[in-house]
Specification:
Blueprint: E1 7-9, E2 15-17, E3 25-31, H1 40-51, E4 56-62, H2 74-85, H3 104-112, E5 127-130, E6 136-140, H4 146-158
Parallel strand pairs: 3-4
Antiparallel strand pairs: 1-2, 3-5, 5-6
Length: 159
């Protein structure tokens, strides 16, 4: 199994297969617009711009499960991301990332790369690095800045 087995709804309402990202290095991030880690959007966008031509993509999945730190609707989220951070990488529709109603992708990700004390996602901006074969390589905490992941991204792009 890999991330390519999953589908998710984009901000525009389109059902997208993650197999569309086959052969790419992918960074999956659960995001929120009103979180202390929200400024990480800037670094995520910079990494995306720097490496997208080499086969790297960031996939953002907004979630409102941590202290209601996300806007109510997808249009508001998308507008916020574009106006404040110039986001051009794919934004998906708001999802649940933990609990029994978690999106199947996040159930898979947390099984493949459990957290330190618990499998579940503890906060916004938890990051999962995926190799070109769609396998989870590493999980990063919300406090890990995207620039700290750059060397791991480059290593996967070069492999």
């Amino acid at each position: 199994m890999s991330i390519y087995s999953f589908r998710a709804k984009t901000m525009t309402g389109e059902e997208k297969s993650l197999s569309d990202y086959q052969g790419k290095v992918v960074l999956i991030v659960n995001t929120a617009s009103k979180c202390g880690f929200t400024p990480q959007y800037k670094e995520l966008q910079e990494l995306y711009q720097k490496y997208q031509d080499q086969g790297f993509v960031v996939l953002a999945f907004p979630s409102d499960q941590f202290m209601n730190q996300e806007f109510a609707d997808d249009q508001e989220i998308q507008q916020f991301c574009q106006v404040n951070f110039g986001i051009t990488f794919p934004l998906f529709s708001k999802v649940k990332v933990k609990g029994k109603d978690a999106h199947p992708l996040f159930q898979y990700l947390t099984q493949q790369a459990p957290g330190v004390l618990t499998k579940s996602i503890k906060w916004n901006f938890t990051k999962f690095l995926i190799n070109k074969e769609g396998q989870v390589v590493k999980r990063y905490s919300p406090a890990t800045k995207p620039t700290e992941i750059e060397k791991d991204i480059v290593a996967l792009l070069e492999s």
